[in-house]
Amino acid sequence: MCGFVSYENATTREYPQWTAGLDLPSSLSLILNRWPNYKAYPAFGGDTHKRVPLLIYEQGEYKEVSAIWWFDAFSENKVTYLGKRTSFNARNLDSPFWKGALNNNRALVLATHLGESKLVGKTKHQYLMQSQQPFMLGAVYRQLENGDYCCAIITRDAHPKMTPYHEKAFPLFLPLDQAFLTLWLGDENAQNAEIQSLLQSPKLFPTLHVQRVKTYKNKQPIGNINDVLVSDV
After folding, report:
1. Fewer Cβ atoms within 10 A, N terminus or C terminus of the chain?
2. Sign of the alpha-carbon torsion through 157, 231, 71, 102
């Protein structure tokens, strides 16, 4: 489960080699260099103001859109309502609920922090994970009839390095590779061999520094947990 993401304290403007190394199209590099700082939580309680910036490829161009972090949604009389299905993470990708978006509406979340949690005894421990440079997460999205976007971050089975902090799921990190990002955001069906390879064997691409915190937003540390999850690559 991924229950918090943010983009702060480190931007692509401060790490020009990050986008330069990707050799991205100029239009895409420009969007990434202007990516807004944000802190995002899933839209529990039907709060449609809880949104996350997404990078999508739509109608032949890359664009940043603000998406409600909750996939189950509908609109009536131009007003957006959220369904009761817990849908801020997409994990069972074989389900018809996700298949259409996985094939046709893949997106990218740009972040520097993410939050994971684990029940230890009877106490919920929250862990803030931070990278010194931006990283990318895979997502799916849909657009409602009133123009609103809604989304879910893709998760896979737990990664061995992540199990001390969350034992059930692992957010889908995307490689910092121009060819793959173009493929991911494009029109290729999700049965593509490269996409399937990542979905079946997800990797930890960034190195993450882990700290137990009281809250993700305020980052107040608890205890002496200060670990480093070293990148798989």
Report:
1. C
2. negative
pLDDT tens per residue across span 31-58: 888 889 999 999 999 999 999 999 999 9
β-strand partners of 111: 135
Domains and CATH numbers, the chain: 4-123+134-202 (3.90.1680.10)
Asked whether residue 72 carries a pLDDT value surpassing 70, the answer given is yes
Which residues touch 140 (CB under 8 Å, ≥6 apart)?
71, 90, 98, 101, 102, 105, 106, 107, 151, 152, 154
Contacts of 6 (CB under 8 A, 6+ apart): 37, 38, 39, 40, 111, 112, 113, 114, 216
Nearest to 204 by CA among 165, 148, 146, 150: 165
Q: Identify residue 72 by its one-letter amino acid code.
A: D
Q: Are 41 and 50 in contact (CB under 8 A)?
A: yes
Q: Dig out the tokens for 135 from the structure.
A: 């990283």
